C-alpha cells in the first residue's frame, strides 16, 4: 500500500500523482499543507515539503527525484514498454535534466511564484505569510514563462516527446508544472503551437483526468483548463 | 575522456569533482562563469548553469542529479564496494533525499547566498549583478545555517555516515556545500561537534585535496579551511 502526502496545487505533487497512475501504482492521497508544519509530517520529512511517498510502513521517500527513481526501480520492470525512464545512460541523463528543469528552474522562475501568490497566499493565515499577491513577483513570472515556452516549443518541434522519441518522465514533470499555471490562465498557449499540441496529447491521458476535475474553493479554473481541445 | 564545465565556487560543481575522483574518473576541468552566458556553453546547457559533464563528443549531462546517476550507471560497477550509491531502493531514496537537501535546500537557504554575496558579486561586472554584498541576505543565511547544522548533527550522531552505515553521495553533496561556506569562515563548527568530526573524516580524503588548495584571488580562506585537524 502506497500513501502519497501531497498538495493539490503543488506541481511536484501533481507530477508524482501522474507517474503513480502511469505505473499502475494505486495510492492513498493525504493532503498536506506544508505551511502548517504538522509535527507528524515533519517526522516523515524534516524538509517539511511535499511530495512524500510511503510504502506500507517503510521509510518515507521524499521529493520528486527520490520518488521518480524509486518508482522506476521498484515498478519499472513490471510496466514493460510503458516505462517512463529510458534504458540508455545518455537518454536517462536527458530525462533527468528536463525533470530538473521543470521542478527547479521552471518552478522557481514561473510556476512557484504563480502558485504562491495566487493560491497558497489565499489559503495561508497571515501569520504564515498569507495575504495579497505580490504584483512584482507575478509580473516577473509572466515575463519568464515566455522564455520557457519558447524552449519547450523548440523541444516539441524537434522531438516526438520533450526528452526524445518516447513519452517519459520529463513530459509529465513539465506538464504537471504547466497544469498549475494553466488552471490560473497564465499559460500563453497561442505563442507556441507546438507546445499546445504536445500538451493536448499529455492532457488527454487518463492519468491527467483526476487533476483536471479538481477545483480550488472560490477560484474556478481558466476556461480552457479542462477542455481537451483547448 | 570526460570534460567537466564547472566553477571553483559552485558547490554543485565541487560535489561533482569529488565524486568523479572517488569513482576514479579523470576529467578535464573547464572553468565556466555562468553569468557570462557564453554562447558555446548555452548550446551545451540551455539552463546556463554548472556543472555540465561531457563524455568524449557525447551529449552533455547537465546538473548534479543527472551527473551523479550517470556516473553511477556508467562506472558504479567498476568501483565495486567503493560505490557511493547503495543497492536497496529504500537506501537509494535516502541518499537522493539528502543530495536534494544539500543542492537545493541547503544551497538556497545558506550556501548559495554566501557564495553569491561574498564571491560571485566580486567577480561579476556590475552589469551582470556584481557589487557590494547584501547584508540582509547574509544575515538570513547565518541564521539558517544553524538549523541545518543541527539537523546534520542529528544525522551524524545517529548514523555512521549521513545517509546510513556507508559513505555515499549524500556525504559528498553536503560536504561540498559546507566547504564553500567554510572557505568564507561561515560554518559554526563549534556548535555541532558531531558534524565537525564527520566533516574532518570527509575532508581528509584525497579527493578533497584539490578543493582545499584552491584560492579565490584577493580572498584568502578562513584559518581552518585547509587544516585537517581544525
Automatic annotation (TrEMBL), chains A, B:
Q: Where is the GST C-terminal domain?
A: 88-222
Matching entries from SUPFAM superfamilies are given as:
GST C-terminal domain-like, Thioredoxin-like
Classification via CDD domains = GST_C_family, GST_N_family
Any idea which GO molecular function terms this record carries?
Answer: glutathione transferase activity
A Pfam match is GST_C
One GO term of the biological process aspect: glutathione metabolic process
Keywords annotated in UniProt: Transferase
Q: How does it assemble?
A: Homodimer.
Annotated PANTHER family: GLUTATHIONE S TRANSFERASE D10, ISOFORM A-RELATED (PTHR43969)
Its name, as the record gives it, is Glutathione S-transferase family protein
Amino acid at each position: 500500500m502506497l500513501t502519497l502526502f501531497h498538495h493539490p496545487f503543488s506541481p511536484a505533487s501533481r507530477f508524482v500523482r501522474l507517474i503513480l497512475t502511469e505505473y499502475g501504482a494505486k495510492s492513498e492521497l493525504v493532503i498536506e499543507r506544508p505551511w502548517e508544519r504538522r509535527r507528524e509530517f515533519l517526522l516523515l520529512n524534516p524538509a517539511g515539503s511535499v511530495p512524500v511517498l510511503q510504502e506500507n510502513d517503510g521509510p518515507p521517500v521524499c521529493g520528486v527525484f527520490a520518488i521518480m527513481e524509486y518508482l522506476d526501480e521498484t515498478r519499472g520492470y513490471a510496466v514493460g514498454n510503458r516505462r517512463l525512464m529510458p534504458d540508455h545512460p545518455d537518454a536517462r541523463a536527458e530525462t533527468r535534466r528536463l525533470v530538473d528543469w521543470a521542478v527547479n528552474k521552471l518552478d522557481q522562475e514561473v510556476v512557484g511564484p504563480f502558485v504562491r501568490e495566487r493560491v497558497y497566499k489565499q489559503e495561508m493565515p497571515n501569520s504564515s505569510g498569507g495575504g495579497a499577491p505580490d504584483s512584482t513577483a507575478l509580473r516577473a513570472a509572466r515575463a519568464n514563462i515566455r522564455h520557457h515556452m519558447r524552449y519547450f516549443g523548440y523541444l516539441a518541434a524537434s522531438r516526438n516527446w520533450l526528452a526524445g522519441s518516447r513519452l517519459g518522465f520529463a513530459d509529465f514533470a513539465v506538464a504537471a508544472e504547466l497544469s498549475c499555471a494553466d488552471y490560473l490562465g497564465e499559460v500563453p498557449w497561442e505563442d507556441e503551437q507546438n507546445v499546445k499540441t504536445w500538451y493536448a496529447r499529455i492532457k488527454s491521458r487518463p492519468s491527467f483526468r483526476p487533476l483536471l476535475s479538481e477545483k480550488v474553493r472560490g477560484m474556478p479554473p481558466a476556461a480552457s483548463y479542462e477542455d481537451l481541445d483547448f
